[in-house]
Design goal:
The complex is a heterodimer.
Chain A (H helix, E strand, L loop, with lengths): L2 H13 L6 E5 L2 E5 L5 H11 L4 E9 L8 E8 L6 E8 L5 E3 L8 H12 L2 E3 L34
Parallel strand pairs in A: 2-5, 6-7
Antiparallel strand pairs in A: 1-2, 3-4, 4-5
Chain B lengths: L1 H9 L8 H11 L3 E2 L6 H9 L22 E5 L7 H10 L5 E5 H6 L20 E3 L6 H16 L6 H9 L15 H12 L19
Parallel strand pairs in B: 1-2, 2-3, 3-4
The chains are: A alpha/beta, B alpha/beta.
């Protein structure tokens, strides 16, 4: 079922073995863990050579303050040509949650990355306009982090 | 027709009446709500206007899309913190006299959404005249709230509003911010009380309007 997907992973590995840190195959889905510094080049390669022309979703994940690496950024790739889906995953430590932007690969990543920055505090380097998108601009903290208190940090000032 | 004949027979040409009674009667008989649906309560609000419940029986069916033409703001649904400055701005744009109905549990107290994103009660932002409980309230309850508001309007005096117009006029209207008012003595007192009460209510926001228009 996932043979075709493993071919794309193999293409990626042949292109540069460092790009594929780990491969997981579960429930008919293939997840490739990519080192943060090479995610943009890997995405470029998959878009141009493997026809993954659409970024279906880009989202963050917080595994909790105890875990290291603490944050994930997940890239859900889709191809409108061969209809396959592939997931790329970047693991980030709490000390430097920085990852290169993929807005140069897919334009749609712009707002997705802003959302991930807004809610998890992941910094997307070289993003054209990295500011909050869902929460108010004067918001303190990043709301979807596991250690963020449900009611916020302080009595929120209305002024 | 019959009515005119009967009235002219039984009434004199000139009536002496309190000014408040006439003005309040005119105000309460044509309340124009602002179209301001925020969440699922807005569905019930639409139903209130529609044929079955027919809010026009009480003179409040003319929902206006522009706050400049509205008297009543029906806050129907949860107010997120990002929406709060917008809500306040719409309220400021409404001309006096104006009233606010807080519809439903979320607008009144935050409801089930006791979290960082939702304002815990719209009375933190605007002064509320009538609170409607329910999740969502039935249209009958909103009709009842309108009737309660009409009763309240009938008990108001034109003189009461003079101060309000002046204080409402010193609004800062920077886009995306809330107006900073100097605050009356009563409001400052309320703020001091709330500040003292912080230990027991750590997540409430000091309200400038709690003591205002409490009739």
């Amino acid at each position: 079922m996932t043979e075709k997907l493993h071919e794309y992973v193999e293409m990626l590995r042949v292109r540069n073995a460092d790009w594929v840190a780990d491969v997981k195959d579960a429930f008919g889905e293939v997840t490739v863990t990519v080192p943060a510094e090479s995610i943009e080049r890997a995405c470029h390669y998959l878009r141009d050579e493997a026809q993954f022309d659409m970024l279906a979703d880009l989202c963050g994940c917080d595994r909790g303050p105890e875990d290291d690496p603490r944050f994930e950024v997940n890239y859900h790739l889709f191809s409108t040509i061969h209809y396959n889906r592939l997931r790329l995953k970047v693991l980030l430590s709490e000390d430097s949650p920085r990852v290169p932007t993929v807005t140069g690969v897919w334009k749609t990543a712009d707002w997705h990355e802003r959302e991930t920055f807004d809610l998890f505090g992941v910094i997307f380097e070289d993003h054209p306009d990295l500011r909050r998108i869902l929460l108010p601009s004067d918001f303190d903290g990043h709301a979807l982090r596991k250690d963020y208190p449900l009611r916020g940090y302080e009595p929120y000032s209305m002024n | 027709m019959g009515l005119e004949n009967n009235l002219l027979e039984s009434l004199p040409d000139v009536l002496t009446v309190r000014l408040d009674a006439v003005i309040n009667w005119a105000r309460k008989s044509s309340l124009w709500p602002a179209t301001f649906g925020l969440a699922c309560c807005a569905i019930e609000m639409m139903n209130t206007v529609s044929a079955r419940n027919d809010l026009s029986r009480f003179g409040a069916e003319t929902f206006r899309a522009s706050p400049r033409q509205a008297d009543v703001m029906i806050v129907s649904g949860r107010v997120s913190r990002k929406m709060a400055p917008v809500l306040r701005r719409i309220y400021d744009q409404m001309p006096e006299p104006k009233w606010v109905i807080s519809m439903g549990a979320c607008a009144t107290s935050g409801g089930v959404f006791d979290n960082y994103a939702i304002v815990q009660g719209v009375d933190k932002i605007v002064p509320v005249d009538v609170y409607v409980p329910g999740c969502p309230p039935r249209p009958e309850m909103l009709v009842h709230a309108i009737m309660m508001l009409q009763d309240k309007i009938m008990n108001e005096s034109v003189k009461d509003r003079r101060d309000t117009i002046e204080s409402e006029s010193r609004q800062s209207l920077v886009p995306g911010t809330l107006p900073i008012t100097e605050g009356t003595a009563a409001e400052k007192l309320t703020e001091a009380e709330v500040a003292q009460d912080q230990v027991s209510r750590p997540y409430t926001i000091p309200s400038r309007h709690e003591k205002r228009r409490s009739s």
